[in-house]
Amino acid sequence: MRYAIIGHVAIVYVPSPDHKIPKEELERILKNPKVRTVIGRIGSFGTKRRVRSVLLAGEPKTVTVHKELSTYFVLDVARITFSPGNHFERKRMIEVAEDGERILDMFAAVGNLSMPLAKHRRVEVIGIEICGYTYAFLRRTIEKNSLKNFLPILGDSRISSPESRADRILMGFFGIDEKHMYAAAKALRNRGIIHAHRLVRKGREEEEIESRLKEWGKFINVLEYDRRIVKSFSPALNHVVVDIKARKII
Questions:
Q1: Per-residue pLDDT tens for 30-76?
Q2: Choosing a second label site near 173 at 20 to 30 A (CA), which of 66, 107, 231, 243?
Q3: In this predicted model, what pLDDT tens digit does every residue of 184-238 receive, in sequence order?
Q4: How many whole angstroms separate alpha carbon 125 and alpha carbon 121?
């Protein structure tokens, strides 16, 4: 059985809360010296990305500290979204960003995409998080990393995004709507890079992205774009990030 590890917590992805996993499998996972807790994750839902999980085995302690790319993340794995499968995207953000940039993370969680960027680059990061519970852990994560260049904001990024401030915008949320893109366009200084994450049907990536870019053309002039598959999300869907070089037109 495949599982992911965040801090001391192992995550098994399950279709429903009452899904049964053989006791021997759970015992095998607990033999991993890094693991003290095993949870079943059903998924995350809504704009606040509320995570649904159930305790399967081990200690009933789901708050942990996860270390990746020399960066600490403090989170409650049972209630806060964080994907180990996005490791290379976190690493890529460090590589593509330039010192001196102003970064806006519109869906910060605990700095899932932007915390390593703030840690390794001389940049200014604003991270907006809509969920109060997650926001508290975002503040703890900033403190754990002793960062002075990461400003957390509790709010809805459709309303709370600063205007004409960002050189680079991270949009790590699959449910991006027109109001989100309008806010992103307003947040650009004039032109910049937008990294927009989407779920798209396998084999239809280009078609679906072209359609979405056409919709977003009301707010931005797409100068050029590229896309990459971050990971397979399900048998039918890929998690794709679209890197858009854009000029604001609003």
A1: 999 999 999 999 988 788 888 999 999 999 999 999 999 999 999 99
A2: 66
A3: 999 999 999 999 999 999 999 999 999 999 999 999 999 999 999 999 999 999 9
A4: 10
Residue 119 has pLDDT above 90, yes or no: yes
Cα–Cα distance for residue pair 125/143, rounded to 1 Å: 14
Looking at residue 111, what DSSP letter applies? T
Domain ranges of the chain: 4-76, 85-248
- pTM recorded for the entire structure: 0.94
The answer to whether residues 41 and 51 touch, using CB atoms and an 8 Å cutoff, is yes
**φ, ψ dihedrals at 208, nearest 5°:** -70, -35
Strands 124-129, 166-171: pairing kind:
unpaired
**Amino acid letter at 67?**
K
Rounded CA separation 153/163 (Å)? 14
Q: Would you state the structure tokens that stand for residue 230, as one six-digit string?
A: 């971050």
Q: CA-based Rg of the chain, rounded to a whole angstrom?
A: 18
Give the separation between CA 84 and CA 77, rounded to whole angstroms: 12
- Angle at 54 (CA atoms; ends 53, 58), nearest 5 degrees: 125
Note whether 4-76 and 85-248 share their fold.
no
CATH of region 4-76: 3.30.300
Backbone phi, then psi, for 166, in 5-degree steps?
Answer: -100, 140
Which fold does the domain 85-248 belong to in CATH?
Rossmann fold (3.40.50)
